[in-house]
Amino acid sequence: MSRIVVVGAGAAGTSAASTAKQFDRSHQVTLFGDLASTAYSPCGIPYVFGREIESMDKLFLQKPEFYTQEIGLDLRLSTAVESIDMASRTVTQAGGEQVGFDKLILCLGWSYVLPDIPGVDLEGVHFIKDIERAREIDRQLDSVENVIVWKARPVGLELATGLAHRGKKVTLIDDEPWLLGEFADPDMVKPGQDSLEALGVTFMLSTELKELRGRDGKLVSAVTDNGEVPCEMAFMAADEKPNTALAESIGVRLGSAHGVVVDDMMRTNIPDVFAAGALVETMQAIAGVPVSLLPSTYSYPQGRIAGTNAAGGEMRTRAAYFPWAMEIGTIQVGGVLITETLAKALGRPYVLGVAKGITSARYHPKVEPMNVKLLFDPKTRELIGASFAGGDGVKERSDFMAFAMRKHATADELANMENVYSPPIGALNEPISTAAKDAVKRLGAK
Amino acid sequence: MSRIVVVGAGAAGTSAASTAKQFDRSHQVTLFGDLASTAYSPCGIPYVFGREIESMDKLFLQKPEFYTQEIGLDLRLSTAVESIDMASRTVTQAGGEQVGFDKLILCLGWSYVLPDIPGVDLEGVHFIKDIERAREIDRQLDSVENVIVWKARPVGLELATGLAHRGKKVTLIDDEPWLLGEFADPDMVKPGQDSLEALGVTFMLSTELKELRGRDGKLVSAVTDNGEVPCEMAFMAADEKPNTALAESIGVRLGSAHGVVVDDMMRTNIPDVFAAGALVETMQAIAGVPVSLLPSTYSYPQGRIAGTNAAGGEMRTRAAYFPWAMEIGTIQVGGVLITETLAKALGRPYVLGVAKGITSARYHPKVEPMNVKLLFDPKTRELIGASFAGGDGVKERSDFMAFAMRKHATADELANMENVYSPPIGALNEPISTAAKDAVKRLGAK
Fold first, then answer.
1. What per-residue confidence (pLDDT) applies to A379?
2. Residue A303 lies in domain
3. With contact defined as beta carbons under 8 Å apart, do B171 and B231 qualify?
4. Domain closes at, from A285, A310, A335
């Protein structure tokens, strides 16, 4: 029997605690969450705002009773952990109660970095995270006409899409010149921008937000270096930072991405202290660069690994490639790092393979574009990056390309891949294969 | 300069002739087609019948002038080749004109095997292939109410789907107990059958068609061992056979799938005679069984390989896995051989991995099921078969699995694959990964 304490009840923490308890039911597992809710999908909030999903209630996966009664966790919601003492192996929760542990798993996630501009505390300025806050905002939205979204990051673009669906007049403000700069090249996200513009969203790119201006404490406009935009509500898709304060307080080492450094068993540098989820750093296999703030797809398996190892098992992480995809307006975009932009920034040589493909037979009414850009290593001819923009199937192609990278797929192999042809669901030529053929031409004979 | 004769102007022949000419423009390339049209997509015909595609004209890729003027072929449509003389290296076309060759490429495709029942020659009984015939049938369909489709093969199911969309009363008759028996297990095609039934199609499975009955030379009913079905039109998705008569006349060797045996350069056993397309045999890599009558996805690259090699280049085929997918009603089905049924028939040991997954976040309105069945080799743990049934993304997943097989992917690797999670387009857990995890449990630790 071990006493295992998990701090943080998001995806990683819930997964770590449940896994540890299920690994050995004699363990006493305590899970602390500072919010009142757990086991919900914050990713769904923009779609509730957009009325694509009818209610926030749909986003809950489990009630707290599931974890207390079915799994057998000591679940403490609305209960922040205020300090950790490694000498006595205890955590102290808000109010002073102490809980002892043999193993500790830190899953504290992330917070927004409040932007350094006046007016971020005005009524009507929102940083989307907590679902109970989101319920209130959802009700308030009915009486709002003009909305700004700050930063063309994933959450910002999902919010812009949802709010446009809801009939709001949306202005998207970002100081970068194109959307999703961290993941995507400008040519691959332009169709997404076009699609949002067709939905009525106004873009103010390369535009700095200077101030949120209020009247009687309520937001009335956003002031930028390109002019003032009237708005009753602002959604701030601000920078995020890993919540590492508690970890740092006990000497846990951080890395270059400001996240907790863990080994392949999710162990920190402090004995018996594990970490998992958005606050840890993971190495991107192609770029060789550590990345923190990964999405919940990674939090669940990382939590499983931390939970298993804390409970006495052995489970290891593997190289990560980070496939991603999302809808922007009616366009799907996605891919696997690295992008052309990143390759250039890293000084990494690459050969491109590009294709303007289609998703169905050219004569079928369901046909949509599928633009592909692949990057290959000029020496090994192996795939080192993939980007997609178009209709259905971007998520599946991104998953495929991440797996192909793991298996060291070459341009030649992808050029000769077999593909399904069926008029309503697949074109004669798979766009991935067409792009790889283009790369083979540029690479020359082996 | 060589004289290259290509017999057959379907996908393989058009591809072979164009490739040979483009490889070396000094070659004199003659392309014979027995029909009046070329470069159309017969796969689109069911969707024109279903009014999803507005007209047969949409199915044409190129006009004949493209091949004669742009490519520079000597294109002879409505011109059958009647005989080949290898001693003088000449083909004789209908009417008696002779054309000499240095290299010959046979791309004669396939024909229906006329079923041995009374009434197949009645007015109203159709074997879909020629697009000009299909135009007439399309016009006649307006005045037809009851239709039977014989055989639940791909074309039969596409026709049944299209005709149901068009509002016809469709009865599908097959002597097999389930749909697509050659490609699919019964549990994986049942959702497709349910979907067609919801569209109003009546299934008569395990039912033998005994006779097509007519009045004044016109079809009035189909007689089966389960009763008589009134119908004014019958679509016969009959067995197909490779068109090998001309090949056999010059001593070309056939294989166990009744197709032409070729090496990896598409060469037959007769020097300077190549073959490509539906009439050749290709080895299925997992089953180790030769297969003929492959779809046009294979005809194009095979034609390219035959054309290149006949023109003096060197290009080789690779192992083939045959991903397939199609829509049945509103359900997508697909996969990569082998199926569980085939594994059993071959006595091949396997371990299953199954999942009842979803295509989007469980709370998103676009969510659809994605049932997965994977087969793994119990010793090597490598993927040897995949089947899908559900919503969007079956084609992409089938392509992915064919590539994974080529790269010897194991259950462990697929269980740990990374995947995109984005509420409208991807679930938290990729169904492929869930199915592979199920297989890992059954396989036990490595």
1. 97
2. 3-111+240-310
3. yes
4. A310
**DSSP secondary structure code for residue B70 in this structure:** I
Q: Are B181 and B217 contained in the same domain? A: yes
Model pLDDT, residue A295: 85
Query: Look-up: residue for tokens 């899953």?
Result: A107
- Alpha-carbon torsion B132, B134, B138, B140, what sign? positive
Residue in A63, A155, A395 with CA at minimum distance from that of residue B357: A395
A50 vs A52: CA distance, rounded Å: 5
Quick check: B323 and A403 CB within 8 A?
no
Structural domains in chain B (count):
3
CB count within 10 Å of CB B69 equals 11
What CATH number should be reported for the domain holding residue B334?
3.30.390.30
- A306/A289 Cα distance (integer angstroms): 22
Secondary structure of B323-372 in the HEC alphabet? EEEEEECCEEEEEECCCHHHHHHHCCCCEEEEEEEECCCCCCCCCCEEEE
Burial of B4 (0-12, 13-18, 19+ CB in 10 A): buried
- Distance (Å, whole) CA B276 – CA B4: 14
Q: Which of residues 282-341 of A touch B (CB under 8 A)?
A: 295-297, 300-301, 318, 320-327, 332, 334
Q: Is B361 in contact with A396 (Cβ distance < 8 A)?
A: no
pLDDT tens for each residue of B87-117: 999 999 999 999 999 999 999 999 999 999 9
Q: Measured between CA atoms, how close is A72 to chain B, in angstroms?
A: 24
Q: Which CATH number covers residue A183?
A: 3.50.50.60
Looking at the fold, whether B22 and B64 belong to one and the same domain comes out as yes
Question: Which of chain B's residues have a Cβ under 8 Å away from the Cβ of A297?
Answer: 418-421, 428
Is the minimum CB–CB distance between B167 and chain A shorter than 8 Å? Answer: no
Q: How high is the pLDDT of residue A188?
A: 96
For residue A120, being part of any structural domain is answered with no
Predicted structure pTM score: 0.94
pLDDT at A37: 78
Mean pLDDT across the stretch A409-422?
96
Mean per-residue pLDDT, A323-335: 96
Assess whether A342 and A434 both reside in one domain: yes
What's the rounded mean pLDDT across residues A131-157? 95
- Residue pair A221/A231 in contact (Cβ under 8 Å)? The answer is yes
Task: Establish if B39 belongs to a structural domain.
Answer: yes
Contact A38, A67 (CB under 8 A): yes
Per-residue pLDDT, A85? 98
Which pLDDT belongs to residue B319?
81
